UniProtKB/TrEMBL annotation:
Species: Lacinutrix neustonica
Protein name: Acetyltransferase
Recorded superkingdom: Bacteria
Chain positions recorded as substrate binding sites: 33-34, 70
Site (Increases basicity of active site His): 139
Domain Mannose-1-phosphate guanyltransferase C-terminal, residue spans: 96-152
Residues at the active site: 138
Residues of the signal peptide: none
Binding site residues for acetyl-CoA: 168, 186
Length: 210
């Protein structure tokens, strides 16, 4: 009996719970949430707030943790990961419909949604979420605490640093580096390395604001 603890019982938490159970990664899910007034969500117990996580783990109420906090709050997602990583094991869900080359490495706390493809030597660092149908080509690295929206295409030897948000259907050509805390808009085409923090949109992707 393996139980997943999920931080955040919103839409993202519900999706991850669905994959956890219906794709056979865990036998049960419990939630921790600071805002919900409910006692359960979709039939899964809300055990308490984030403050109750340590006690709950000590009482063996769950085995592994995953953080379901969305792209607007990646800093919080990082802070929570760092708060718990040295005392509670983080889980990982790679949906069974994904293709992963055997050389690809996925960090703890990651969730890879259905039909994504991760080719040879891809590295996904800890606590990162990859949405449906992303294509990540060989030798590309995605940093910790990132959020990749659906249908992103990344060519080979791309490096994405930590806490980046990549919008739906963005394309990133090969040998590009995207620095930390950068947001790429939906449908953008990134053809140059980007290091200044901020939001970039269009084809070719250009800076629009901090
Ligand atoms: C499963 C899921 O749902 S996962 C989530 C998927 N969602 C996404 O991928 C969302 C991606 N988000 C975007 O593309 C957003 O438009 C952002 C974050 C890039 C920008 O949002 P905002 O800061 O609110 O920008 P705003 O809407 O004010 O637009 C600013 C300017 O940039 C332009 N712009 C905004 N987004 C884009 C875009 N994706 N491509 C091209 N131009 C864009 C606007 O037309 C506007 O131009 P103007 O000043 O000439 O009128």
């Amino acid at each position: 009996m393996k139980i997943l603890g999920i931080i955040g019982c919103g839409d993202l938490g519900k999706q991850i719970a669905n994959y956890a159970i219906n794709d056979n990664h865990y036998n049960d899910v419990v939630f921790f949430d600071d805002y919900s007034k409910e006692t359960s969500v979709n039939g899964f117990l809300i055990r308490g707030t984030i403050e109750s996580i340590d006690n709950s783990f000590a009482n063996k109420e769950f085995d592994e943790l995953i953080i379901a906090i969305g792209y607007k709050h990646l800093k919080t997602k990082k802070v929570l990961y760092e708060k718990f990583v040295n005392r509670i094991p983080f889980g990982k869900i790679i949906h069974s419909t994904c293709y992963l080359d055997p050389t690809a490495k996925i960090g703890h706390g990651c969730v890879i949604y259905p039909k994504s493809v991760l080719d040879a030597n891809v590295i996904i660092k800890e606590n990162t979420l990859i949405n449906i149908s992303c294509i990540i080509a060989h030798d590309t690295q995605v940093g910790a605490h990132c959020f990749l929206s659906p249908c992103i295409a990344m060519a080979g030897f791309v490096t994405i640093k930590e806490q980046c948000v990549i919008g739906i259907n963005a394309t990133i050509i090969d040998n590009i580096t995207i620095g930390k805390e950068i947001q790429i808009g939906g449908g953008a085409v990134v053809i140059n390395t980007i290091s200044k923090k901020g939001v970039y949109v269009g084809n070719p992707a250009k800076f629009i604001r901090e």
